[in-house]
Write a structure and sequence with these properties.
With 145 residues, this protein is an alpha+beta fold. The chain has 2 helices and 3 strands; from the N terminus they run ααβββ.
Length: 145
């Protein structure tokens, strides 16, 4: 009798080990995927906040584009994101072509593009797709008038 129970228990332990071997990689993929994409989502939000901050600065009457770019680079560096002037593009255009329109104001578009390899926590992790770039774009109209 004792022999039969030990054979059953050993079969159960073997089955449990086989199930764990099948399920563990899936659990690890889900866990590391949540960590990787959660981190990238955080960094995307920080980049968006820097773009908002820069757009808010550039529309103020006494702030220049260079000051806004320097401020965005500083804000991104506080979030441990390396950015250069080449990563930030600021374009301007008029909201209306009609000079008599109340919408005849200068608008600024701030666009930040950060390559994901600068912020990715787990680059080239097997079976998890990589993200190319993290981008944010904000447009605001100039104040005053």
């Amino acid at each position: 009798m004792v022999n039969v129970r030990t054979q059953k228990e050993s079969r159960n332990r073997g089955a449990a080990a086989a199930e764990a071997a099948l399920v563990l990689p899936l659990i690890l993929m889900v866990t590391f995927g949540a960590i990787k994409y959660g981190w990238l989502f955080l960094k995307a939000q920080q980049i968006t906040n820097a773009a908002r901050h820069g757009a808010r600065m550039v529309v103020l009457p006494d702030v220049g584009i260079g000051d806004a770019v320097a401020s965005m680079i500083d804000l991104l560096s506080q979030a441990n994101i390396t950015a250069t002037e080449d990563d930030i593009a600021i374009t301007s255009y008029y909201l209306s072509g009609d000079v008599t329109s109340p919408l005849y104001k200068l608008a600024y578009n701030v666009h930040i593009t950060i390559p994901s390899d600068r912020v990715d926590l787990l680059p080239n992790f097997p079976l998890l797709p990589d993200v190319n770039d993290l981008e944010a774009s904000v447009t605001m109209a100039e104040e005053g008038n």
